[in-house]
Amino acid sequence: MSGIDVLRADVAFDEPTLVEGLPGVGLVGKLAADHLVETFDMVHYANVHCEGLPPVTTYATGDRELATPVRLYADAARDLLVLQSDVPVSPGAALEFADCLGGWSVDAEVTALYLSGIGREREEGATPALYGVGTGDGGERLGAVDIDPPTEPGLITGPTGALLNHALHTDATAMGLVVEATPQFPDPEAAAHLLDAGIGPLLDAEIPVAELTEHAAEIRQAKRRLAERMQGAEETSSQARPLGMYQ
């Protein structure tokens, strides 16, 4: 059955924010989402059974319990939900996935924060550029914490683009954060900047990111295979691109 299967009816929110962590360029969204779940010791809140997701199950080291590949985690104290995904969403399923998750977000009165990387090389030690876009009241929320608007025209593709399109079409409040990320490899430094300069201010929360920056090499190696699969699907994965590429 398609939809969001809530497992924890005992978890209550006031005005929750959902941080989406689908794999994409530099794996910045997945790295950021995984970091939030681990750092805040979030509880498994719901399973995501949207149409088009691969019919697979996942398991973790030292745990015999199987899990769905796409899940929601919750931190009621911070009014926070995080979408954690172990698989990319295929291009053919992007619209169905956006209707499923986006529709649930609207019904549950959740403000969504979508994450995307824009593939660009940068010098070692350089801070990646970060900017924000929004629908509904999202632009005002971004401006209130001094997150810059884009410096060039562009578009966001893949399932993250479909989710933002759903928010625009339904006049829902949503925000999108775009960060420069190395296209060929997982980019923990970009994910750390995304958390520190984007997600943290929007959540009004301190998010320690030393684990990402100090262990960047190990993280890159651990996530290398997923990044390689995402490169193979570069034309359809979630990413931001300068609009000039289509003109």
Automatic annotation (TrEMBL):
Protein keywords: Proteasome
Keyword tRNA-binding attached: no
InterPro entries reported in the protein's UniProt record: Proteasome_assmbl_chaperone_2, PSMG2_sf
One Pfam family per UniProt: PAC2
GO cellular component, one term: proteasome complex
Region of interest (Disordered), ranges: 227-247
Keyword hit for Oxidoreductase: no
UniProt protein name: Proteasome assembly chaperone family protein
Organism for this UniProt entry: Haloplanus rubicundus
